[in-house]
Specification:
The protein is α+β, with helices and mostly antiparallel strands. Helix content is 30%, strand content 26%. The chain starts with a strand and ends in a 22-residue tail after the last strand. The structure holds calcium ion.
């Protein structure tokens, strides 16, 4: 696998602690990338997102063949196992009551990706200059978008935009979304918590991802702009670009970051 990767989480400008967690790893066969956004008082959100990331990454550490017949089931089971573990702690430990976490995970090989997803963290794909959102938010406002009651932009600014309908730790069983797709050289993937996607609009995210700037510079720009726009929540961004097999990972074309739109 030849990937250029950058991953960073930032507390933002309002919150005291960072309840987001992330994972980024790659071996010769595939990469594994996870963003989790925790919730719950008394620092329980941090515990939940850390547990989710650790359990899912551990469960999937030896899943190397993304074409294997049981690969979807393994991804689903990793999320279900994490859910049961977090849910169990919410029942046993009083200060963990109500804790939970989103999980958006992607396994990437040279030809295929598999996504496992619950909650409102997101995975985007940029291919041929166009960005598409691979995951669908499990949120109250997304349901209203689906019903035609809100536009996506209204949903982003809605006061209840952070209310999610599915997450790790919410119930004794969860139904994760699991799906796959093809991977091509040049694809760029973004995993992000809602502290990024709620603060920086899709058009700007696409503009940055379409640029051929290095992933570290894109991640830095995304986090900086989320902070400039308010930084109301913890901000996490993981950018993965699929490089040609002969690429060393450092020789891809590098261009400047497009300038940020002016703020009035
Ligand atoms: Ca968040």
């Amino acid at each position: 696998m030849h990937l250029a990767v950058a991953a960073r989480t930032d507390v933002g400008r309002v919150r005291k602690g960072n309840e987001d967690s992330l994972h980024a790893s790659a071996n010769a066969h595939r990469g594994l990338f996870i963003v989790a956004d925790g919730m719950g008082g008394h620092a329980a959100g941090e515990v939940a997102s850390e547990m989710a990331v650790e359990m899912v990454s551990h469960d999937l550490s030896d899943l190397n063949d993304l074409e294997a017949a049981d690969s979807h089931e393994r991804v689903a089971n990793a999320l279900r196992d994490a859910n049961r573990a977090v849910f169990e702690r919410t029942r046993i430990e009083r200060d963990k009551l109500g804790m939970g976490s989103t999980v958006s995970a992607i396994l990437l090989s040279e030809t295929r990706f598999i996504v496992g997803h619950v909650g409102d963290s997101r995975i985007y794909l940029v291919r041929d200059g166009r960005m598409s959102q691979l995951t669908k938010d499990h949120s109250l406002v997304q349901e209203q978008v689906d019903a035609g009651l809100l536009t996506p932009e209204q949903a982003r600014r809605h006061p209840q935009s952070n209310v999610i309908t599915r997450c790790i730790g919410m119930a004794d069983e969860i139904e994760p979304d699991v799906f796959d797709g093809d991977v091509r050289v040049g694809d760029a993937f973004l995993l992000a918590s809602d502290g990024l996607t709620g603060m920086v609009d899709d058009r700007r995210i696409q503009q940055l991802l379409v640029s051929r700037a290095k992933p570290e510079r894109i991640v830095d720009a995304l986090i900086q702009e989320a902070n400039v726009n308010g930084g109301n929540d913890n901000i996490t961004a993981v950018v993965v670009r699929v490089l040609a097999a002969e690429s060393t990972g450092t020789d891809h074309e590098v261009t400047p970051i497009p300038p940020a739109p002016a703020h009035g």
